[in-house]
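Quick start: read one record
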Amino acid sequence: MTHRVLSVAFGAAAVLAIGMGCAAPSDPAPSTADTTAAAAPSTDIHLAPLQVHGGELRVGTPVPVTPRAGYDNQPAFTPDGRALLYTAVRDGQADTYRYTLADSTRRAVTATPTSEYSPTPHGEGLSVVRVEADGTQRLWQFAADGTAPTLLLPGIQPVGYHAWATPDRAALYVLGEPASLVLADLDAGTADTLARAIGRSLQVVPGREATISFVQHTSDSTAQIHLLDAAAGTTEPLVATRPGGDFHAWTPEGLLLMAEGATLYQYDPSDDAGWRPIADLAPLRDVTRLAVSPRGDRLALVAAEPTN
């Protein structure tokens, strides 16, 4: 069923502002330039080997790749699978960093007076949610080396997270009470609100053209993963989440992953087995964000820092 609640042009004179708000403090989207970075939780990114055997995933031992105190979060693999882009907060400032797998090096990609979150490969560079000097949160583009910042969607804010269904169509998590799913078309200059009360995880679905998955919350406190067909502008339910689940990721084979506590679960849309536990990630705790490499051989995951 199609859900088109709002359709507007997003030129400079039109602003889509669906209620200012902030995402949950456990994994913040920016709400203001200063307070969000200061309140960011202490999290680390880990990498684990990933293999598929007989339709079931096998996960190797996770290794921390950001071993420091502070916020390291929002990992995204580069299209060649050789590096991770991620957000790091240092001295109250959020910037995009790059971790190169071959030599385990980390370097800053952006170094601006503003904060950048949710780095996502796009075209020859990357797109980010930028917290501008006045606290406005909008979608921007940078070159791969962190130069040439360009505002992509001038009239849509406050953006929290995003994913690219096609090079010109972005699914946006727009902050508000409740948060909204907005599909923006760069070429057509339109923005359609297709759902409300959604979760923060927006993921490209492999094997399905121009499709994004997201979590739809309901009034009875349950949640389902839904699929957005960006070409048709429609959404459909797929499967209930794990209890309290929001963050999820797909493998290239079309297997869906979601963590609950320190347990990693797998769901295969092609069978009726439901969610199956496939890995105990302890001693990691509070595993949240997940990202799978383009070849499906690495899993990046975010967990709370150890307490001792």
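The domain at 6-304 is CATH 2.120.10.30 (Neuraminidase).
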